[in-house]
Amino acid sequence: MTDRVHPSAKPTANGGPKPTFPATKSQLSSANRPAYRPQPPQHRRGCACTLCCYLLLILFFLLLLAGGAGTVLYFLYRPHRPTFSVTSLKLSSLNLTTLSAKFDLTLSTTNPNDKILFSYDPTSVSVLSGDAHLAAATIPSFLHRQRNTTVLEASLESAEGAAESDAATQLKSSMRSKSEVALKVMLDTKVAAQMGAFRTPRVGIRVSCDGVAVSLPDGDKPATASAENTECEVDVRFKVWKWTLG
User: Fold this and answer.
1) Rounded-to-integer distance, Cα 26 and Cα 32, Å
2) Is residue 136 within 8 Å of residue 156, measured between CB atoms?
3) How far is 182 from 234, CA to CA, in rounded Å?
4) Which of 84, 76, 222, 81 has the alpha carbon at shortest distance from 152?
5) Using CA atoms in the order 39, 44, 47, 51, what is the torsion angle rounded to 10 degrees?
6) Parallel, antiparallel, or unpaired for β 233-240 and 198-199?
7) Using omega within 30 degrees of 0 as the cis cutoff, is the peptide bond preceding 82 cis?
8) Strand-strand pairing, 142-144 and 224-226
9) Helical (H) or strand (E) element with 83
10) Is the pLDDT of residue 179 over 80?
11) Which residues contact 169 (CB under 8 A, 6 or more apart)?
12) In Å, what is the CA distance from 228 to each residue of 126, 128, 129?
């Protein structure tokens, strides 16, 4: 009785055994499973959001701290704006043809605060009629101490070319039919406040003094300007980048 020889299973192309048919459950699940694609890391976006939150929180606390410090300083020192007034304005000369004029101006400014000292930069002073600049000058810098009234004096003269502007041309034409012209005195400067060891940054202020009038010459009668204790308005002007607020 001879032994039967069974042929062995032929190897597949890659050397492994032939796949079984039908496919098993594991083979079906592997075939239907989507290919793995690695996702980009998300930690950078999370770090950026966290950093923004911290910066906003720090900014909020800084604003809160500044507001609290400002409130404390206000209740401690009770700050008040300085006051200005035109004591006198004398018209030395006036030429209606060239619109050149000379003025002698006397101002008084009062610091009403008990514990605040004001430090002024050089102050530009102008005399205007409408939009026409008649004369200008500069007052040197000065310190304004507590509970003190300081007298400022300036001699103002017309600048070259002032009569060539459109506003000056309109003013000369109106002077022919009027006996009196309204004037305005304007001051522009920067001031810092000192309260003990604390000193504020310098801020711009504009002082406007209305209610000044000049009577025009009539024959042998010279031109005169009338101004006596004219109160002025003080406006604080904050500069933010290229814009001036105030």
Assistant:
1) 10
2) yes
3) 20
4) 84
5) -150
6) unpaired
7) no
8) unpaired
9) strand 83-95
10) no
11) 163
12) 18, 17, 18
- Max CA-CA distance within the chain? 164
Residue-wise pLDDT for 204-223, tens only, equals 999 999 888 877 766 666 66
Q: Is the pLDDT of residue 61 over 90?
A: no
Q: What is the pTM of this model?
A: 0.66
Count the neighbouring beta carbons within 10 Å of the beta carbon of residue 154: 21
Q: Helix, strand, or coil here: 70?
A: helix
Half-sphere exposure of 30 (CA within 13 A, CB side): 5
Helix (H, G, I), strand (E, B) or coil at 92: strand
CA distances for 48 relative to 18, 42, 87, angstroms: 54, 11, 62
SS3 46: helix
Residue 79 CA: distances (Å) to CA of 31, 116, 232: 82, 7, 19
- What's the confidence (pLDDT) of residue 244? 44
Nearest-angstrom CA–CA distance, 100 and 213: 16
Q: What single-letter amino acid sits at 160?
A: E
Give φ, ψ of 234 to 5 degrees.
-110, 125
> What is the distance between the alpha carbons of residues 169 and 179, in angstroms, rounded to a whole number?
17
Residue 120: closest CA among 198, 184, 205: 205
Torsion angles phi and psi, residue 138, rounded to 5: -130, 130
Amino acid at 81: R
Burial of 54 (0-12, 13-18, 19+ CB in 10 A): exposed
Q: What are phi and psi of 143, to 5 degrees?
A: -100, 135
Measured distance CA(134)–CA(157) in Å, rounded: 8
